[in-house]
Design brief:
Layout: H1 2-18, E1 36-40, E2 47-53, E3 58-64, E4 69-76, E5 87-95, E6 105-109, E7 115-121
Antiparallel strand pairs: 1-4, 2-3, 2-7, 4-5, 5-6
Length: 135
């Protein structure tokens, strides 16, 4: 009986230890090096995020993160279509404070030494988008 409790406790402790590695999203990252970034837009902190090719200075991609939502960006090395863009960036917009979910959009991107994410703040305050306005 004691052995069964110890096994259950060990499994529970392992689940708590490895839960963050399973793909949780949150501002500040996942507490390990996984090349994933989360930007949460709030009324007094609305984000626009751009990806810049540092070799040319060209902005390759931009998204305005709506207030009340978050942008999650993740890079995968060596999975892109060609030498100039050998990596893939997966991204998606989702409800703020959502900690899991699929990143459904994929964009080929330059290698890590030749790209830069540029988050910028928009003018504040910015009201959340109204949904289902009744009149």
């Amino acid at each position: 009986m004691a052995e069964r409790r110890l096994t259950a406790f060990t499994l529970f402790a392992a689940a708590l230890t490895f839960a963050p590695i399973a793909g949780c999203y949150g501002p500040g990252g996942s507490f390990y090096s996984d090349d994933r970034y989360t930007y949460v837009s709030k009324e007094w902190q609305p984000w626009t995020v751009s990806l810049v090719d540092t070799r040319t200075g060209e902005t390759l991609w931009t998204v305005d993160v709506p207030v009340g939502q978050q942008l999650v960006v993740s890079f995968r090395e060596g999975t892109g279509p060609n030498r100039n863009k050998p990596d893939l960036m997966s991204w998606d917009l989702m409800e703020a404070e959502k900690y899991t979910g699929a990143l459904r959009n994929i964009v080929p991107v330059p290698p890590s030494h030749a790209r830069r994410l540029e988050p910028t703040l928009r003018p504040v305050p910015e009201a959340p988008a109204q949904q289902g306005v009744k009149g």
